[in-house]
């Protein structure tokens, strides 16, 4: 029988070592003398630079693909300020197909050119999210110019072209991907393009795209970029105010800002997005509206006044001199957006006026002979309570305290329907029957789901805890036969079965409330005869309890502007509406706006009643309510 022996398995990690041992002489000692042994080679960024400089297509393709991967996983490795060649080459490969399109040589565009263009765009898109690279890219006039050219072509291709070039149809999906990358690049870079004129090509191309596209992803990036392009340099408004009144008209035209390029169609489209139930679109639309309204750029029709310029733009946004559709949209949506997503109490959960409870005009209401059963919902809650809380809660829900005068009639031997009294044995039997499921299931083994029942003795002792005005008593019942001794009847005095089961809150309240008829003398002034109460007399104590209960619900909602539940949409909506009301609603000709505000926001007083913290936290201003009257 042959002895098994181990057979070595050659894997890539050991194959190289075996070859070195075979070629290096005795036991591979000469392997250390091989040229290049132990040298790691150039670092990845240096190799990428050399590949981009080499002009070899395979090396360039490797460098661009590697750059796109690094920009996704480790963007901090690429610093365009220190490696300008990478930024320049990325821009060159991105702009190449658009240079060919400008020269009208579409046949020269190849799949390799488009692939490198997209790889470069993706890398630029990822690098533009880094602050240092943003600053470098924003200073590149070449990049900005070709981003505009790229947008012009994409707009033509997707929204204008009727007869598309057959040679370019194969790149339709790549053009769609490229348009998304271009908008993503413009989103952060547009923050650096300030003081743009009315004829700014980038701003106007974005407006064309805004009117043409219905793609949510594109629209969000477009509106954000438009908002950024409205920015002015710090102190620009002061320089506008100091202009000489005699400045030439043509010079004033040159200094007109891009904000005046916005037309009614552009503003209407952005306003309409407030009606869409999409938080991303609503947020960017609100940001744009706020920047548009508060811009300090001087309006051409104003007398170099910032406040007058802002009033003119507000009137244009609200379309006060035409259809007033903008005013209706803002008056309808802004109050709703102010409270959207906040943890509020619905007005339907808070009754405007608690239903009054009438006082009992007689304490001698017939006592039910059958104890009412708990509802399934209430039973499922109480059965899981630990003892003695379960026994106490059950007693208060099924029994009520009795405070009227006790009967002086002799106690029947087997009667449990005397007002204000129950026998101890009937009380225990009723409790045991109600929770039969608990003690039946725990006969053989302990029931882990439900705690065991309270023993009978402890249960009877607990009655006085459940109803402080009750007491356990022993009553002597005279025997019909004078020769026999009287019998004893064990009762609980001061409680009686309810007509209907009540919920836990009502049961606790009635069991522990102060008894107004506590005097033992029914004729005393402090204890008037219940028959003297007028018909419809309201039980004041119960009414106040109901009021307190409603107030507790209302005051349980507490909001602050710095809480986590508050979103930017809430704050932006408040700022815009507050500005509109402050500027326009105080004017004499604002009655139409006030009427619109009143029509669309009829629900607001009820919401404030249920959530007064909206006023306390400043989400809703107190003076707004005057326009609802």
From TrEMBL:
<dbReference type="GO" id="GO:0006325">
    <property type="term" value="P:chromatin organization"/>
</dbReference>
<dbReference type="GO" id="GO:0006355">
    <property type="term" value="P:regulation of DNA-templated transcription"/>
</dbReference>
<keyword id="KW-0156">Chromatin regulator</keyword>
<keyword id="KW-0804">Transcription</keyword>
<dbReference type="GO" id="GO:0016586">
    <property type="term" value="C:RSC-type complex"/>
</dbReference>
<dbReference type="InterPro" id="IPR003150">
    <property type="entry name" value="DNA-bd_RFX"/>
</dbReference>
<dbReference type="GO" id="GO:0003677">
    <property type="term" value="F:DNA binding"/>
</dbReference>
<protein>
    <submittedName>
        <fullName>Piso0_002079 protein</fullName>
    </submittedName>
</protein>
<keyword id="KW-0539">Nucleus</keyword>
<feature type="domain" description="RFX-type winged-helix">
    <location>
        <begin position="391"/>
        <end position="499"/>
    </location>
</feature>
<dbReference type="InterPro" id="IPR052406">
    <property type="entry name" value="Chromatin_Remodeling_Comp"/>
</dbReference>
<keyword id="KW-0805">Transcription regulation</keyword>
């Amino acid at each position: 029988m042959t002895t098994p022996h181990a057979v070595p398995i050659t894997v890539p990690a050991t194959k190289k070592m075996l070859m070195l041992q075979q070629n290096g002489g005795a036991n591979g000692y000469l392997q250390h003398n091989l040229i290049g042994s132990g040298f790691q080679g150039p670092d990845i960024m240096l190799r990428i630079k050399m590949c981009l400089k080499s002009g070899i297509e395979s090396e360039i393709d490797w460098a661009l693909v590697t750059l796109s991967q690094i920009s996704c996983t480790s963007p901090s490795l690429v610093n365009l300020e220190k490696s300008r060649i990478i930024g320049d080459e990325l821009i060159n490969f991105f702009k190449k197909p658009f240079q060919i399109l400008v020269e009208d040589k579409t046949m020269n565009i190849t799949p390799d050119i488009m692939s490198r263009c997209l790889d470069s765009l993706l890398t630029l898109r990822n690098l533009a999210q880094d602050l240092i690279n943003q600053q470098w890219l924003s200073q590149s006039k070449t990049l900005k110019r070709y981003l505009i050219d790229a947008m012009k072509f994409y707009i033509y291709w997707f929204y204008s072209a009727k007869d598309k070039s057959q040679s370019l149809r194969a790149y339709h999906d790549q053009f769609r991907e490229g348009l998304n990358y271009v908008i993503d690049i413009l989103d952060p870079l547009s923050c650096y393009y300030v003081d743009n004129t009315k004829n700014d090509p980038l701003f106007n191309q974005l407006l064309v795209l805004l009117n043409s596209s219905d793609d949510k992803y594109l629209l969000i990036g477009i509106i954000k970029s438009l908002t950024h392009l409205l920015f002015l340099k710090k102190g620009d408004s002061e320089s506008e105010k100091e202009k000489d009144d005699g400045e030439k008209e043509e010079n004033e035209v040159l200094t007109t800002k891009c904000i005046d390029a916005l037309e009614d169609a552009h503003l209407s489209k952005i306003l309409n997005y407030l009606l869409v139930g999409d938080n991303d679109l609503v947020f960017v639309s609100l940001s744009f509206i706020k920047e548009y309204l508060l811009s300090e750029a001087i309006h051409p029709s104003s007398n170099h006044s910032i406040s007058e310029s802002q009033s003119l733009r507000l009137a244009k946004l609200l379309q006060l001199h035409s259809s007033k559709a903008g005013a209706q949209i803002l008056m309808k949506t802004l109050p709703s957006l102010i409270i959207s997503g906040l943890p509020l109490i619905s007005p339907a959960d808070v009754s405007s006026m608690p239903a009054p409870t009438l006082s009992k005009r007689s304490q001698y209401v017939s006592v039910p002979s059958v104890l009412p059963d708990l509802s399934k919902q209430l039973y499922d809650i109480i059965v899981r309570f630990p003892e003695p809380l379960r026994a106490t809660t059950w007693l208060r829900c099924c029994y009520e305290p009795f405070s009227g005068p006790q009967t002086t009639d002799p106690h029947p031997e087997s009667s449990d329907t005397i007002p204000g009294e129950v026998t101890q044995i009937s009380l225990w039997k009723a409790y045991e029957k109600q929770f039969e499921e608990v003690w039946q299931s725990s006969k053989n083994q302990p029931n882990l789901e439900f705690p065991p029942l309270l023993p009978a003795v402890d249960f009877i002792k607990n009655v006085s805890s459940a109803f402080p005005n009750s007491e356990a008593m022993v009553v002597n019942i005279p025997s019909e036969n004078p020769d026999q001794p009287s019998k004893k009847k064990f009762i609980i005095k001061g409680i009686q079965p309810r007509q209907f089961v009540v919920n836990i809150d009502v049961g606790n309240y009635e069991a522990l409330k102060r008894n107004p008829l506590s005097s033992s003398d029914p004729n005393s002034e402090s204890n008037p005869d219940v028959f003297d109460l007028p018909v419809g007399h309201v039980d004041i104590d119960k009414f106040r309890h109901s009021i307190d209960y409603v107030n507790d619900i209302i005051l349980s909602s507490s909001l602050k502007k710095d809480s986590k539940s508050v979103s930017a949409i809430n704050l932006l909506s408040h700022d815009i509406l507050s500005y509109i009301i402050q500027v326009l609603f105080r004017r004499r000709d604002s009655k139409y706006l006030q009427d619109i505000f009143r029509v669309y926001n009829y629900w607001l007083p009820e919401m404030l009643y249920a959530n007064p913290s909206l006023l306390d936290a400043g989400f809703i201003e107190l003076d707004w309510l005057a326009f609802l009257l």
